[in-house]
Structure formats: C-alpha cells, structure tokens
Amino acid sequence: MPRDPQWAYTYWDITNEHKEKLRQQGGQQIALRIYDSTDIDLDYQSPHSLQEYPCDELARDWYLNIPVSDRDYIIDIGYRCGDGRWLVLARSKKVHIPPVYPSGWIEDIFVNINFKQDLRDKTVQNLTPPEKKIAAKTYVNNIYDQIFDTAESTEIMGVAGFPFGSIQHFHDSTKIKQVISSYIFPSDMGMWALPTTSGINMSGVSCYASLPPIHPCQFWLIADAELIVYGATEPNATVTIGGRPIKLNQDGTFRLQMSFQDGLIDYPILAVAADGEQTRSIHIKFERETPSRYINTTEKADFEWPS
C-alpha cells in the first residue's frame, strides 16, 4: 500500500513450511521485488522496470522506496537462487502510487442534494477531464482574443483630438502605438505618455501605476531520469540482463525501465537460443553524473520575494 508518492509499505504472512519448500528448490536469499506494471499484465508481459531489495528472513513487513511516482506497481516476495532463478512466495495486487506533483485538474462544482435522497448508483454531476476541454477552450479563446483586439483598437482611436476624420481600426497594437506617437505626441514628450492599461495617459502620470504588484510566491521543480533497455529476439529464446532472466513478450520483444541514478550501470545482455547452442550478446554501460541539484517538491516550496 502507498504511504506517500515516494514510499510504499508492504506486509505478509507466510508459513515456514512454504519457505522451506522453496529453499529446498534452491532458494538462498529472501528478497522483495517491485515491478512497474503500468498498463501491462505481468502474466505475459515484462515489467517496465524491476528493483530487488534483500530483506530479513524473520521480517513480516517492509518499506520500499518508489522509483517513479504516478505509476502502477506489483510486489513479489520470494527467493533468489544461485543460478539466477526467482522463486515466488507471494505476489501483491496492483497498486497505484499517487503523483509527487500537484494535480492540474482543479474544478469546483457545487450541487444541492436532498439529505434524504438515496444516492446509491446515481450520478449527481459529470466532470470533464481537462484534456477533453482543450479543443473547445482554444476555439473560444480565439474568438475572445479577436473581440478584445477590436475593442482595444477602438478605445485607443477614441482619444480626444485624434487627427483623422474617421475612426480607423488597427488589429496590430504596435501599429496603434506608432500612429499615436507620430501624430499626437510631440517628440519631446517621451514614452511616459504612451497608453497604459488604465487608459491614455494625457496628464503625464507615470506609467508605473500600471505595473503589477510585487508579492512573494512559491516555486518548485522536480526532474529526474529513467533508463530504458529494450530489444527483441526469438520468442522461445532465453534473455538475461546483468545475469538476471528477463521475461519475453509473445512476439519476442522485451523492455526494462528503471530509475537512472548517479553512477555506473553495467548491463551485459545475453540471448541464448532454445537449443542452447547459439548465443548473441551485447555489453552496454551507462553512466550518469548530476553536477548540480537545486530542486524541491511543491510541499517544500517556501514563499520567496522576487529579486
């Protein structure tokens, strides 16, 4: 079960008879494996990533660090054998870990509900996800932008003493400012007399009155990297990555996705044909270095004054 976006809590109750049975089959080190099972079925697909944590033989629960939030995970407890086999003692159900970042979907809708009304199997209000509103919202915003541009040009052209005999509309605000500065304001009046958000400043009041107020704000950033190793071979072949077997999909493809932290990751990949005679291999090394890190989550964001 998720404790927070970065940690999960798992617990189990396994009999000694079951453990002894797997130890007799070659099980040596009891461990926990956490699989990224987002949008896949582990019964016939390989996980996006796999991480293994050795644990104590007498332990009944454990805290696990989550590689990436906002994804689905499944946890195995079992024994790792000396020859690389993995013997499963028990498997958890799929659990979704909440995201570490705040949700972008904010929608407050108030409805009146009779206190005595039976709400079972009834829908009071249907909410529309933000991604389905983007197209309609973009279209509406374009219409409002055109209306605002037309109104803005009309307001500016309505300056008292405008030299043209008839009002002319300009949809480009740059052209508007050029016309006004060329025909109305003397060359020694300066930029302080340009129009502001509060109207045309004919009285010489400073344009600083239109600047937005300065106030402290909270700022945050989270960023990280993931490593994806993928490939394909004959569906009946055996593939190991770093000495550990990888389950192939039905078409022979495989994919391993994991958190990519600082340091060197050495990944020899070996494929052995079904007859055990033919082999193919590739040896890949990955190295990551983070020279600087100045990040924080939104929960740890403090109010700061802009410099």
TrEMBL record:
Domain of life the protein comes from: Bacteria
Pfam families from the UniProt entry: DUF4912
Listed name of the protein: Phosphate-binding protein
Species this protein is from: Richelia intracellularis HH01
Taxonomic classification: Bacteria, Bacillati, Cyanobacteriota, Cyanophyceae, Nostocales
